[in-house]
Every structure is written in structure tokens, then in C-alpha cells.
Amino acid sequence: MTENTSPSGSASRPGDGPRTVVVTGAGTGIGRATARAFAANGSHVIAVGRRAEPLREAAAEPGSGTITPVSADITAPHAPDRIVEAALQATGRLDVLVNNAAVVGDESLGGYTPAGIEWQLTTNLTAPVLLTQAALPALRTAPAGGVILNVSTALGQRAWPGNSLYAATKGALEVLTRGWAVDLAADGIRVAAVAPGAIDTPIGEHRGLDAERRAALRKWQIGHTPLGRVGRPEEVASVLVQLASDKAAFVTGVVLPVDGGAVVA
Fold this sequence. Notes:
Residues 1-20 are annotated as: Disordered. This protein has 8 helices and 7 strands, in the order βαβαβαβαβαβαααβ. With 265 residues, the chain is of the alpha/beta class. The protein has a single domain (20-258), classed as 3-Layer(aba) Sandwich (Rossmann fold), CATH 3.40.50.720. The chain has a 7-stranded parallel sheet, with helices on both faces. Helix 1 crosses helix 8 (233-244), helix 3 (79-91) packs parallel to helix 4 and helix 4 (114-140) runs parallel beside helix 5 (164-184). It is globular.
């Protein structure tokens, strides 16, 4: 096998073969771009999402590389074991886990319900913890060292209207990122996170916002982003690929904003 000489160096080392990368929430937005970026770089990607069709579309896109769609709800019982088993069955290994899947509600304090709180906590926090736990045995044996990448949000560091519960779940994921980095260093596993700001994804539609509210939200976001625009999912994906690469072998415990300067403005 020819050694990977791509700038990121994330796909393989000599004799190791391509890395296997699990990406959750891979059907749309940042997850889809991340699955495609890792696959284009030579990794075998296990693309996980609730809906089968978007996953198949991502896998079939030209230049996508090797993507294996796995339709699964990460909050379902036994889903973590099933996802890890899918990776091991496909390639016999698991090198990188990207915890990207998340949900955001449209409620604010005064309108929360127990069910709405549980929905966000379970999807954004409990599910990534349980999936990471299930992946640990395989990550510990990754030839180049395992990598766990969590997708947080710039909202964890700077409040944006109507997103406090979502931000709280992501803030907790950032605490876990730092804690896991310390706990797993002796196992050769690195842990890092990215904190995207305003990114061009379907999250507004998923929240049930109509076109007028989405436009108002975008205007507000751009006004609070020094670079004066929303980001592209591919810009977040490229950072994730770099964090997983050998070039970042001395990077762990970091939460890296990818937000056009929003958290420092």
C-alpha cells in the first residue's frame, strides 16, 4: 500500500492501512461534510444517522471516498454497541470517533418541559458518553493511537438568544473533553473538540423555524461575527480532519472555536 502523503496525514501510516472513522449525525450539515472530508482523505468512514436516505446520498456523492452508511438513533438502547460493531465488521478497527449528532429545541426558560429537557440532554450528552465508552476498547488498540473529537458550539462560551439549554449540554461536553483528555492520555488516546459558531446548516429548519425567523436569526448571527458571514460545514470538517491527523499528535484537551471570531468579539 502506498504511504499517504496528504498534508493532513490523517488517513494512514505506513503498514497500518486506512483509518476507520465513525461520524455521528452524518446525514446533513457538519456531520455530512466531516464524513466526506475524512473519506476523501483516505479513511474508511462509518456514517451514522437516523435517516437512511441522506446517508446513502452522502456515500454516493462523487469524490466521497469510502463511506459505509449505518442508520441508527444514537439514543436507542444498544445503539453504541451496534455502531462500534459496524465499524469492526467493516474494517476490523476503529481509530477516530467524531461525536457530532445533536438536537436543539426552540424553547426558552419559562417554556421548558421535562420531555424537552430530556430530549436534548439524552441526545447531546448522554448518547456521546455511552458511544465513547463503547468505543474505548477499539480506540485503545488503534495503531496510530485513538482520537475522540467532540462537536460543541460557540454558544457554550458566548450566550445567544434562546439557546441556553442547548449551550449547557454542549458546555458539559467540553468539560468531558478536557477530563477525558487527561484520563485517556495513558492509553494513547487524544481528545479534542471544535466549537462552531454560525454555520450554514439545516439546524434552523430542524428547530421548526419559519423562513422569516431563520432570516432574522442569520442577520443577528452575522452581526455578531467579526468575519461578517456564516461559516461553511466544510470549514469545520477540515479542522476536525486536522485535529485527527498525525500533525496534531501533541494536541489534546483543546476546545477550538471555529466561529469567525464570535467568542472573542
